[in-house]
Amino acid sequence: MNRKLQRFKYLFADFISALAAWTVFYLYRKHTHISGASGSSSLNLLDDLYLRGSLVFPVFWLFVYAITGYYNDVFRKSRLSELWQTIGNTLIGSGFLFFVFRLGRTELAGMADPLSIYFSFFAFQFLFTYIPRLVITTTTTHQVHRGKIGFNTLLIGSNSKAVDAWREVVSQKRGSGNLFIGFVNVNHNPAGILANYLPHLGNLDDVRTIIIEKEVEEVIIAIETSEHDMINSIINRLIDTNVVIKAIPSMHDILTGRVRMNSILGTPLISVSHNLMPAWQENVKSFIDYLIASLALIITLPLSLFLAAGIKLTSKGPVFYSHERIGRYGRPFIIYKFRSMYLDAEKDGPGLSSRTDGRITSFGKFMRKARLDEIPNFINVLKGDMSLVGPRPERKHFIDQIVQIAPHYLHLLKVKPGITSWGQVKYGYAGNVEQMIHRLKYDLIYLDNMSLFIDFKIMIYTFLTIVKRKGI
After folding, report:
1. Coil, strand or helix: which one is 179?
2. C-alpha to C-alpha distance for 180 and 152, rounded to whole angstroms
């Protein structure tokens, strides 16, 4: 199962389709409205409008499709969803190109109604785009149904419900693509009756290691009613992994409307994992991250040189301070900051800062007031480790302590950590683990309300904090 090849198929088809649609539209308009006046309906490759369209349009359409998330999951596409997504993208994109390139102007349109020109442009773009997509997606879907393409799937559960779930999935006339590699039980008891059908890979304590080693893509939770008190623990262990999480619904789940059908013929499941932002917002967020981080590093270069000189002149040690933090999906990364503490400030072990922290240099206090010590964080944004807005990254030393008290902290690892966050805006810096847990609720609320609008509001409040010098 080659994801890069599959994504390339869609990209290549969309590129050729966009070029072909523009060429046919150009010839169609010349033939129907211009040939009578000019006596020619042939394609002029040197025509300025055609040439500019040929260079810009394919790239524009690939950008539109990418930013709306079309290329995100290339093996689990719904043909009906693909139809509506293609219609929506084409309607909006065609309108944008129509007005920017003035496709309704007289020399191209003759005396035609601009609205009819727009819909002919839309129709060509849609048909040339959707038909190749439909062929690729249909071929892929049939391969999934026949078991030629599949997703490594782990079952959590070991008794009758797990056996029933496994039987229902594998007995479907049209396969769902689930390739069961084994199961884990939720306690340390013997494996359970599912061991008669699938390999027993361990218990809940081993699940993260199994997901990594076995390259698991989907997890299905099928535990007994008596084990439902374990559900929070299971979700917390899986929430920071990049897997699709589904659960077998109870009758209560069905009656309260929590079960949503993704496939008419598939097994009804509750989707536990979910995208925190629509795909287009997530992609725009990433674009804004890279754009602002690049501009910020350039604009603040003179200030950074001043800060570097101030650090060297006021205390011994390097200009930059770097150490390991935990990022998205629990992956460690190295964070960069301007050094605001004395050298060897943490020789006795990791510690949290406070307003009366004696480890902070006088120049460090000046930087922290306006959070200038965090300017090198923009390097982390460009590297893809961080975002402009997101929960602040913590060290594993403190995460281990937090999780002992508040295991739901692990939900924060579903997103990239940020230079600023709602928790930091509302609460500020935390001086101990108790304060970190108190700040946690703000970051969890942010996760439930993630949007570009919320991000912009947080950035505005952060800017005001910097201007008013209300940092630590």
Report:
1. strand
2. 6
pLDDT 10s digits, 328-356: 988 999 999 999 888 877 766 676 666 66
> What are the backbone dihedrals phi and psi of residue 108, each rounded to the nearest 5 degrees, phi first?
-100, -35
Amino acid symbol at 8: F
Query: How many whole angstroms from its chain centre is CA 331?
Result: 15
First to last CA, the chain: 50
Classify 450 as helix, strand or coil.
coil
Tokens at 76, concatenated: 């689990």
Higher local confidence (pLDDT), 53 or 114 = 53
pLDDT of residue 239: 74
Query: Mutual orientation of helices 279-299 and 48-67 as an angle, nearest 10°?
Result: 110
Domain with CATH 3.40.50.720 in the chain: 151-271
- CATH top-level class for 151-271? alpha beta
CA distances from 281 to 67, 68, 175, 236 (A): 8, 8, 32, 25
Across the range 24-30, mean pLDDT stands at 85
Residue 333 has a pLDDT of 95
User: How many angstroms separate the CA atoms of 10 and 61, rounded?
Assistant: 12
Say what angle helices 362-369 and 301-314 make with each other, to 10 degrees.
Answer: 150
Q: In what order do the strands lie in the sheet with 218-221?
A: 200-203, 178-185, 151-156, 218-221, 244-247, 270-271
With 80 as the cut, is the pLDDT of residue 33 above it?
A: no
How far is 101 from 163, CA to CA, in rounded Å?
60
Beta-bridged to residue 323, according to DSSP, are 335
Q: Is residue 114 scored above 80 in pLDDT?
A: no
For residues 318 and 41, which has the higher predicted lDDT (pLDDT)? 318
Cα separation, 262 vs 144, in Å, equals 15
Burial of 70 (0-12, 13-18, 19+ CB in 10 A): buried
